[in-house]
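Anyone able to model this chain together with nicotinamide-adenine-dinucleotide?
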Amino acid sequence: MKITMIGAGYVGLVSGVCFADFGHEVVCIDKDAGKIEALLAGRIPIFEPGLEQLVAENVKDGRLSFTTDLATSVSQSDVIFIAVGTPSRRGDGHADLSYVYDAAREIAAHVTGFTVIVTKSTVPVGTGDEVERIMRETNPDADIAVVSNPEFLREGAAIDDFKRPDRIVIGLNDERARGVMTEVYRPLYLNQSPLLFTTRRTSELIKYAGNAFLAMKITFINEMADLCEKVGANVQEVARGIGLDGRIGGKFLHAGPGYGGSCFPKDTLALVKTAQDHDSPVRLIETVVSVNDNRKRAMGRKVIAAAGGDVRGKKVAVLGLTFKPNTDDMRDSPAIAVIQALTDAGAIVTGYDPEGMDNAKHVIDGITYAGNPYQAAEGADALVIVTEWNEFRALNLDRLKTLMNTPILVDLRNIYQSGEVTKHGFTYTSIGRPE
Ligand code: NAD
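re: yes, here you go
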């Protein structure tokens, strides 16, 4: 199949290269000329494990290419994926669909022959109808079927998730697209990943319902963690105790500083807005959004309390800036709010992240950046782990203690056990576990 991928970001680039790896002929298009230039020069504009090698192999084999020229590729494609961003709209929290609609207009002007247009971006229910309307208005002769195919990959494990998905959801209202989409996903289908065909609107809602449910699960265990701290219980054991129940499941039950990232915050908010617009409010999710918003800054206060209640003029080292390990993505990272709370209280913050520091510099002002965890800890009055990168899991605590001014460790991801830290002379604070 000839596939065009519009948008070469985290989703577009990973999906594009994986489709190429399945044997399809894929052209990735991005408006950002710098991104395309980098890709053409063999540089990957994002950090995602395994991506560089997979891109290089597929470019070498001639199945994957990059361009800013949408017209040529679109006119030759059987299937066109829209994988552009759908951030929160400034002001009201609705999904900003302007990139999707712009892409739809540009595609419509250049399609030839029967073409399947697939929205891979996360879009509110009903967006497919509007994409179809825009395309028919732009080009009344276009022979198109507009399909919804939301993406469920996780940054940091994106290639594996794409190649071994739990399910592939395809929403269509035009039966002609069914065979084409089955062909696109044939290698996965043969690999026993279930293809779930449904209507376009249902498919669009599945994506939001899924993300909202996961965000709710995280928020649930975070509130249980707070309660554990008050009553002297251990949230990790609570999570295990409930997670072994097959009806609940053990995943997404890790207490922490609140969910962040490029999806959960904006998608929960967009679902809340969509539901309100349809006079069918999702109050559970409204609460999840507000609990999670409060939590991130509360984590800053937790650090301040652990450091004795006053951090003015004190040095705090923050390890982990990205919203989760194995990505360089800083979008809505809890570290942003934690650091803001600390600097508002007068702390002098040094941050370190294995991959996220270039992006962090665009969104976090007024801190210094270190080259490694030990450099960050020099002279620190407290050390905070915000993101559980592997390299923070076995820190040399004796070395840290000699470098720090005061040996206080605040572990917002529960990656250490209290005893193993305190025996090195540290004061240790974590989430929802007895001190
Ligand atoms: P991103 O910001 O990394 O990438 C989007 C890209 O689209 C950018 O490079 C941008 O320049 C490009 N673009 C915008 N308009 C364009 C146009 N008209 N023509 C060509 N290129 C254009 O975003 P992302 O993280 O890849 O997310 C894309 C979509 O996928 C969003 O809707 C998101 O919610 C969804 N999603 C993301 C993830 C994730 O983990 N990042 C997972 C599942 C779904």
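Residues 6-12, 29-32, 35, 83-86, 99, 102-103, 106, 121-122, 151, 153, 155, 262-263 surround nicotinamide-adenine-dinucleotide (CB under 6 Å).
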